[in-house]
Model the fold of this input.
Amino acid sequence: MSWNWKKASVIGTLSLASVLTLTACTSGGSKDAKERDGKTIVVSVDEGYADYIKSIKGEFEKENKVTVKVKKEGMMDTLDKLSTDGPTGASPDVFLAPYDRVGGLGSEGQIAEVTLGNSKEFDDTVKKLVTIDGKTYGAPDVIETLVTYYNKDLVTDAPKTFTELEALQKDPKFAFASEPGKSVGFLAKWTDFYYGYGLIAGYDGYVFGDKGTKPSDLGLGNDGTVEELNYAKQWYGTWP
Done:
């Protein structure tokens, strides 16, 4: 395998997974809307986040003299119903949404503009992901990154470069017994773009130019991306 200094890092980059958004104001004609007295805020989250929201809502309720009602609902289920529930007031007041849905929801008027009270806690890159035409439509909530897992019983220190990973792949102790010539020293799911983009970026590949803001400039076919695909192909040739 050929070596390229650009792909020295094993760990991927940070990405914003989801944001807390505020439903745009509506006239409220549904039963749910009529039952609210203006002092109740409905927060919709996946079941896995419910206990956390319940644990912190008390202080917010005291400071703002409101009642926070936690609704357990899948994030995508909430989004699927937003266009119909929003106008009638049946939608939650606050909910989670993938950051890549913020632009469409904001431009369609389905979510409200917000002010980040803790703006200093986020870097400019993350804030740009929830900002459209100078308006902020969500609070960054979940930030993810890619990590490398390794077995300490088999590998003394975590690999830091692809050169080290290539050496592991050639180590006989990681040979895949049922398929001669194959190895499991290092495995990755690069067929999923979420996991594969770090490798593409390492070769100066990109999706849209000018830091993702110029859709007319596509970088997935440039020389760097082609080189990256050939490199990844070599890895797939060594995997079972």
The first helix runs from residue 31 to 35. Residues 36-96 form one domain.
